[in-house]
Amino acid sequence: MLRCFLRSKIHMATVTESNLAYEGSITIDREIMDMAGILPYEQVMISNLNNGERFETYVIPGRQGSREFCLNGPTARKGVVGDRIIIFSYGYMNEQEIKDFKPQIIKIDGNNNPLKA
Hints:
Helix content is 10%, strand content 45%. It is mainly beta.
């Protein structure tokens, strides 16, 4: 049996842009995506700490080192610039994989810089 577990999390990122005129998704700095092990077009769940919204979308890679977290298209209605968000990536694992698995947690400071673990 496969079970769904947290695979990675980007914790406390700040929304840097909200672009309603885009087709949809969230743009994330490619460097931070790589740290979290999130691939382009991968589905993620986002929780907005400022307004309580929780929604799913997919990821578009942003410019490496830009520290951008841009809500695009309909997701732009779920938050505004300055909101703090948590981005969750889940994966399905079997009983053997679960035993030794630890999710990749990336904590972010107020300027969208990854904090040292």
